[in-house]
Structure to design on (229 residues):
């Protein structure tokens, strides 16, 4: 079965600095990877997805993610953090051996400090 | 941009009562899902629905739960006899295609409080 780990519960970064939110995954088939962001009292909002063959994918609001097959990772990055990026971030995976279900990581709370 | 809409935003019910959570998925989407999230923590899969039947369900989705698409627009989750531990945020989601890289689009959720 597929699984997702986000090793950091909390990431703090100063505004203007680069940020990284880490994600590693485990699948038996091909991985389909996604990042979502959740603001308080809101649903999950799609940020970006892995596209086969692109090790660096770009998404909404200046975010990008780096896929590394050998490390089974899909880390979320942004070159310059904004205070408004403060939110809860979820990595998710679908395994093409396991149907339509998305499995979400436990989430990482990002705080960008002014 | 089309959105998934959920009603009500907050539902308070007494233990043992039945609740129905309602969702209107994006109109051209074919796959529908319910997830739940307890206290802003992990997002847990409940059930997926396609072509008027359940395609997958998790261990959480026991006999107390049911889903229905009563008409061409609504998608509902019923909890027959609520328990305290059912208190959570319930999110409806939909996707356009069944392809594996189709993202889910989520509603803003229904906060269910069981007292």
């Amino acid at each position: 079965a597929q699984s997702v780990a986000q090793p950091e519960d909390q990431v703090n970064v100063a505004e203007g600095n680069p940020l990284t939110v880490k994600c590693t995954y485990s699948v038996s088939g091909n991985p389909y990877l996604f990042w979502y962001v959740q603001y308080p009292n809101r649903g999950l909002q799609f940020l970006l997805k892995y596209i086969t063959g692109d090790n660096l994918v770009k998404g909404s609001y200046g975010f990008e993610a780096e896929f590394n097959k050998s490390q089974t990772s899909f880390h979320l990055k942004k070159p310059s953090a904004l205070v408004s990026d403060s939110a809860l971030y979820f990595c998710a995976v679908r395994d093409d051996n396991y149907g339509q279900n998305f499995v979400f990581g436990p989430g990482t709370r990002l705080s960008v400090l002014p | 941009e089309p959105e998934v809409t959920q009603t009500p935003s907050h539902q308070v019910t007494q233990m043992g009562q039945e609740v129905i959570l309602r969702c209107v998925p994006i109109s051209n989407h074919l796959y529908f899902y319910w997830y739940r999230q307890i206290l802003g923590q992990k997002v847990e899969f409940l059930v997926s629905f396609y072509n008027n039947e359940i395609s997958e369900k998790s261990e959480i989705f026991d006999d107390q739960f049911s889903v229905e698409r009563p008409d061409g627009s609504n998608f509902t989750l019923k909890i027959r006899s609520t328990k305290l531990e059912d208190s959570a945020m319930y999110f409806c989601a939909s996707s356009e295609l069944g392809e594996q890289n189709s993202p889910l689009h989520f509603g803003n959720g229904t906060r269910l409080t069981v007292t």
